[in-house]
């Protein structure tokens, strides 16, 4: 039984969500937390692997920009919602500009 190939946009979304997980997990990494550190490391590797999968079909610049954008928006959202980081109007506006860039890159990438 062969597993059908994953749509590159789905791979990229998974990679971005995993980036949010490992970037957010950095707050809990350290020598006194080996299991947490291992989970963050494995999540990081998985994120890079899904990014690599996506780049097999998508332009590298588009894939990388969207991957980092998802990670930045997600980590900022986690910071605001969970860690109590500031949620000023200007900060939210900047996050929305990143989201608009991600959407624009997807819409105008020329790849289905």
TrEMBL record:
Belongs to the drug/metabolite transporter (DMT) superfamily. Small multidrug resistance (SMR) (TC 2.A.7.1) family. Gdx/SugE subfamily. Its main location: membrane. It is found in: Cell membrane. GO terms for molecular function: transmembrane transporter activity. It is a multi-pass membrane protein. The keyword Transport applies. It comes from Brevundimonas abyssalis TAR-001. The chain crosses the membrane at residues 33-52, 64-84, 90-108. It comes from the Bacteria. Keywords: Cell membrane, Membrane, Transmembrane, Transmembrane helix, Transport. GO terms for biological process: xenobiotic detoxification by transmembrane export across the plasma membrane. This is Guanidinium exporter. GO terms for cellular component: plasma membrane. InterPro entries: EmrE-like, Small_drug/metabolite_transptr, Small_multidrug_res.
């Amino acid at each position: 039984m062969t597993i059908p190939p994953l749509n590159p946009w789905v791979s990229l979304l998974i990679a971005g969500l995993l980036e949010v997980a490992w970037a957010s997990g950095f707050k809990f990494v350290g020598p006194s937390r080996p299991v947490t550190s291992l989970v963050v490391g494995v999540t990081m590797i998985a994120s890079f692997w899904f990014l690599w999968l996506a780049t097999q079909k998508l332009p590298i610049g588009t894939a990388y920009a969207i991957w980092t954008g998802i990670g930045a928006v997600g980590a900022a959202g986690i910071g605001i919602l969970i860690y109590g980081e500031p949620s000023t109007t200007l900060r939210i506006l900047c996050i929305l500009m990143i989201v608009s860039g991600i959407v624009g890159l997807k819409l105008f990438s020329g790849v289905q």
